[in-house]
## 1
Amino acid sequence: MKKVSATIIVTLLLAGCGGEEFQDLRNFVKDSGADMRGKVPPPPEISPYEPFSYDNSSAIPDPFKPHKADIKFANRSGQNQPNLDRSREELEEFPLESLKMVGYLQQADIGYAVIRSSDGKLHRIKAGNYVGMNFGKVISVSDSEIKIKEMVQDSAGDWSERESSLQLVE
């Protein structure tokens, strides 16, 4: 009987201590949101879309039409412009990067370069011929390289020279 009553007392003591272990934490969580009432502001009113029409009388320039930044440079678009009316040569159909120098010939003191185009055909050119898509004029031909002067147009419409070369591929 003593053992049974000691077991009951120990069980009651343990049961009394076990239930209140995190009660203060539970009360804090339960009471922490009691005073908080959130207020969400109403969404802003959306105004209807009003299109803007750009016209010549407007002080704001149309962003979708090209324009020159300064009027005094307006006549420069033709400066250094290549001859656009001349007849095109066969190698002007190909980008310069797709052409390869594969040989060199010399006849009557004139140096000729042998060029392979991207379609596999061989072409013979000399100084004065045109190659590439950027109005590239052959300046000189040597046994190891072709020097080319290209004409490229910038965003303002001006033309500038750019030097390129093709090296002999072995």
## 2
Amino acid sequence: MPPLVRDETPADVSEIRRLNGSAFESDAEARLVDALRASGALTLSLVAELDGAIVGHIAFSPVTVEGAGGRFDGVGLAPMAVALGVRRRGIGGALIAEGLRRLRGAHRFCVVLGHADYYPRHGFERASLHELRWEKPAPDDSFFVQELVPGGLRGVAGVVRYRADFDDV
């Protein structure tokens, strides 16, 4: 059975915090989501439910690219968490698909730092192919971008910067 993917609600906040805290090696991602929410910087925050329980969460927030061609705004996917007991059942893919569907047309592009074999399956390609690099050191095969509007990456090249909230992660 596919998960129900929906917008987060205020009633979900503690469960989202718990899920992010248990899905990663530290509580940094949980703190990041709380900080983005507190600063009004969650462009989109979705949860996935199975049998009424929250088993997945995905967040998107603003990013900028600064380069010779100017400054460009987009969104970054981070973090995404899926409960340990239900991984490899399409929950992450459902969250990504719904998030990108909602963001398509409203934002130029989406970037993500993640697993080299996972994100290309969801339409992402290496950011370096578009002359984009993350502001921090990262392996070339782990930083990705996806165009969200036709021509959304035209002329976009340079350094991708996330919000200052990410500095603690």
